[in-house]
Amino acid sequence: MTERWVIHLPVSVPDLHRARIFARTAARLLAQLSARIEPGGVTVSTEDQQCVRHWVFCDRPLPDGGGRCALPVDHSSPCARRAPWLNRRR
Ligand SMILES: [Zn+2]
Ligand 1: distance of its center to the CA of 72 in Å? Predict the structure, then answer.
């Protein structure tokens, strides 16, 4: 049996941009509560089209092999290493 679970948490926000901001914030807060978050797996969707998912974090591999990008999916700056608050184990 798997130890990985997916939380489906409906929220009311006016658009995709704000849904992504909310999801990033929720992921960061959950990471602080010792939850092991996989940023690359965080997605948002509208309630009536849950099969159409939109990525939240960039998650591209970094060129130096040092992890994955922790910035928002639509960032315009160069990719950056994961923030220390992600995947932190306690
Ligand atoms: Zn990136």
Answer: 7
